[in-house]
Amino acid sequence: HSNRAMWFQDFFPPNVCPIDVKANTFYGIMFDAGSTGTRIHIYTFVQKSPENLPELEGEIFESVKPGLSAYADQPEKGAETVKKLLDMAIEAVPPHLWKKTPVVLKATAGLRLLSEEKAQALLLEVKEVFEESPFLVPEDSVGIMDGSHEGILAWITVNFLTGQLSGQNRQTVGTLDLGGASTQITFLPRFEETLKETPGDFLTSFEMFNSTYKLYTHSYLGFGLKAARLAILGALNMEVVDGQMFRSSCLPKQLEAEWHFGGVKYRYGGNKEGETGFKPCYLEVLKFVKGKLHQPDEIRGSSFYAFSYYYDRAADTNLIDYEQGGVLEVRDFEIKAKEVCDNMERYKSASPFLCMDLTYITALLKEGFGFRDNTLLQLTKKVNNIETSWTLGATFYLLQSLGMTY
Ligand SMILES: O=c1[nH]cnc2c1ncn2[C@@H]1O[C@H](COP(=O)(O)OP(=O)(O)O)[C@@H](O)[C@H]1O
Ligand SMILES: [Ca+2]
User: Fold this and answer.
1) 39: which of 95, 129, 168, 282 is 20 to 30 A away, CA to CA?
2) 45-95 pLDDT, tens per residue?
3) Under 8 Å between Cβ of 48 and 97
4) CA 23 to CA 6: how far, in whole Å?
5) Are residues 219 and 136 in the same domain?
6) β-bridge mates for residue 348, sequence order
7) What's the pTM?
8) Is 179's C-beta closer than 6 angstroms to any atom of ligand 1?
9) Percent of the residues in the chain that have a pLDDT greater than 90, as a whole number
């Protein structure tokens, strides 16, 4: 498989190339069963020579909404959504490689919040879908992922894609993930002080690509954007009485609506008579955020990669370009939150939660984690056309554990 054997491939469309120059291509399929949606990531790797590590060649990505947890009482229907996505992999992976291509599904906060019984019923149905597929189904192929792994694997993905896990002069970056039901912060501490001041269960050592890293990581369950909405409304873990109304100064005054989350129906609305706007909203949000999160001193001055709902809300309000992403300061979220909350009628075309979401993001960053107003956030959805998701890091681990690579 020297370069000499491949010189002619440029002259042929890939499907009629006379010899299989891609003989060393292999695949990995990773499902992300998130609280708001289920996604399939089909990664392609190429082993260019036996002495080098395989290279990541590309990704096929597709997603469906809602997530598995919305099917808590219909596990078969939930598994059906996984099957639909898996059919894409049948198309994408050449038949002779099906048997060698591993498929795994990891669920995050949505399933963590369900009862053990309901979560297991869903996972069992998914496992059956996998068993009936032509792919390789490893042990533990279906399960709920530990929150600390979620942060670490996303950190691996971002730092791998930006080239920080190989070569000289490595400058790793921290990552911030804001999901629907939980949120993660992960970084590589540089100061001895940080290690001393950090609770033990926030530190995890692991090995990747022949280096050992000791990372600061934590997943805050219930602090995802959608779970936070309920907490701010005061509706979290409430026995919702029929017709009960939850009001907030973060919502448009005249609003009255319904919202389904985690299989429960909530009625919510604005402060018809009382105050609305950024100031009262921020105070309301602070009641939920303040004093709940660990604040490592070290992060105040460093910059972070941020994705998921940080990205979505920044793009929704034109703080960044939806395709390109961009760099923001923490204060940009606050400026935008003020603009939206103090002109709620003007923004009524967008989600009624826009003011609450931006205010929550501001409070989470500043009062939760303790970032400065001028802390830089690099908002990214993709690096080199690969999604910034924990799924790539998880696939590296999977391939490593199967002895296929790394
Ligand atoms: O592969 C991905 N690429 C880009 N964004 C993603 C991907 N997977 C999830 N997201 C983002 O994650 C957020 C939803 O979080 P999710 O449903 O994963 O909740 P959870 O992490 O609390 O379980 C949304 O902002 C969604 O756009
Ligand atoms: Ca997620």
Assistant:
1) 95
2) 998 877 777 899 999 999 999 999 999 999 999 999 999 999 999 999 999
3) no
4) 11
5) no
6) none
7) 0.92
8) yes
9) 81
Atom of ligand 1 nearest to the CA of 381: 4
Please tell me whether 23 is known to bind a ligand: no
Q: Which of 125, 150, 284, 387 is catalytic?
A: 150
For residue 278, give the CATH number of its domain.
3.30.420.150
The number of distinct structural domains making up the chain is 2
Instruction: Identify the band that residue 23 occupies on the pLDDT scale cut at 50, 70 and 90.
Output: low
Question: Can you spell out the DSSP letters for 241-290?
Answer: PTT-EEEETTS-TT-EEEEEETTEEEEEEE-SSS--SHHHHHHHHHHHHT
Query: Is residue 197 flagged as an active site residue?
Result: no
Q: Is 110 in the pocket of ligand 1 (CB under 6 A)?
A: yes
Looking at per-residue confidence, does 10 or 115 come out higher?
Answer: 115
Q: How far is the CA of 207 from the centre of ligand 2 (A)?
A: 23
How many angstroms does the Cα of residue 33 sit away from the middle of ligand 2?
8
Residues 367 and 322 in one domain: yes
Atom in ligand 1 nearest the alpha carbon of residue 41: 1
Residue 167: DSSP 8-state: S
The rounded mean pLDDT for the chain is: 91
Residue 395 domain-assigned (yes or no): no
Task: Let me know whether 125 and 217 are in one domain.
Answer: no
**Could you tell me the two tokens for 265?**
């129906």
Q: Which atom of ligand 1 is nearest to the CA of 36?
A: 17
183 labelled binding-site residue: yes
* 277 is known to lie in a ligand binding site: no
Distance CA(112)–CA(93), nearest Å, equals 31
Contact (Cβ atoms closer than 8 angstroms) between residue 319 and residue 332? yes
